[in-house]
Amino acid sequence: MQRVWTDLLDKVDWDELSALYRVAPLGDKSPAGLKTVFTNSMFRCFVYEGGQLVGVGRALADGVDCAYICDIAVLPSHQGTGLGKEIVGKLVNLSQGHRKIILYAVPGKEPFYEKLGFKRMRTAMAIFENQALAMEQGYLAET
After folding, report:
1. CA separation (Å) from 53 to 6, 18, 31, 45, 142?
2. Do the beta carbons of residue 140 and residue 134 sit within 8 Å?
3. What is the helix (H) or strand (E) element at residue 133, kind and residue range?
4. Per-residue pLDDT tens digits for 22-79
5. Average pLDDT, whole number, for the chain?
6. Order of strands, edge to edge, in the sheet holding 52-61?
């Protein structure tokens, strides 16, 4: 079946997108919150197959210095098909011209992104809303 790619927001079913993040699994993200973050992202892509949302990703970018790729999600039935790689590739291409492209990954998925040219950073730091949960899930290292 043919995949349809778009960056348009006007036809996104935000409830469908929220459900995709839950099953991907990338957590429980509210439809309203997803609408806000995708609207505020310079680059985004939504991938549909047979009218169903099967993959998504976005990049926050400032147009010169930094682009930050995040929220890559693929339906479990489409994982392992190369779709995630295509989404990341498209966002990297859209982000060309920035001095750095940063990617935030789910713990354990780093080898996937390393195959796409990303390298581990030594200086990345974060403050999470729930520091203890982020530590438990492997997002933060002991200092």
Report:
1. 11, 11, 14, 11, 37
2. yes
3. helix 131-136
4. 999 988 999 999 999 999 999 999 999 999 999 999 999 999 999 999 999 999 999 9
5. 94
6. 3-6, 43-49, 52-61, 66-74, 100-103
**Domains assigned to the chain:** 3-104 (3.40.630.30)
pLDDT of residue 83: 97
Nearest Cα to Cα of residue 123 among 106, 100, 107: 100
Residue 107: predicted pLDDT = 87
3-state secondary structure of 49: strand
Q: How many CB atoms lie under 10 A from the CB of residue 143?
A: 4
CA 77 – CA 94 distance, rounded (Å): 26
Which pLDDT score, from 0 to 100, does residue 104 have? Answer: 85
Euclidean distance between CA atoms 104 and 110, whole angstroms: 9
Residue 70's closest CA among 30, 42, 97? 42
Instruction: Count Cα atoms within 13 angstroms, Cβ side, for 95.
Output: 28
Cα separation of 32 and 113, whole Å? 28
Q: What's the pTM?
A: 0.91
